[in-house]
Amino acid sequence: MMTKRVAPLFLLLTLAGCSASQDAPAQKAQQGRVSPERSLNMEQICKDRAAHRYNSAVQKIDVTGFERFQGSYELQGYTSRKEGFVCSFDADGQFLHLSMR
Question: Which three-class secondary structure state does DSSP give residue 93?
Fold first, then answer.
């Protein structure tokens, strides 16, 4: 008699487990290959824009990170006054914008 009650409960739990959605893994930046010439050019543009924005010398701007996303690039950096920024570029390496962090 007890097995008649357990079987429907077990079936219900099994079906509920099958219908539960799984969380998608967090999307990570892609580490793609960029030519050294292109990356140096993007770094120089980023430094120039950040120096202008923060009223600083280009030599006082440090680019500390380079990430490739689907269709874009981001370069992170800091000024000598520890002000953070991110430069964004499109897939062709054209400057898009400078964001303060």
Answer: coil
How far is Cα 86 from Cα 76, in angstroms, rounded to an integer? 4
Q: At 87, is the secondary structure helix, strand, or coil? A: strand
Angular region, 62: left φ>0, alpha ψ -120 to 50, beta rest: beta
Q: Which tens digits make up the pLDDT trace of 3-60?
A: 555 455 444 445 455 444 455 555 545 445 678 899 999 999 999 999 999 999 999 9
pTM: 0.65
Residue 75 CA to residue 46 CA, distance in Å, equals 7
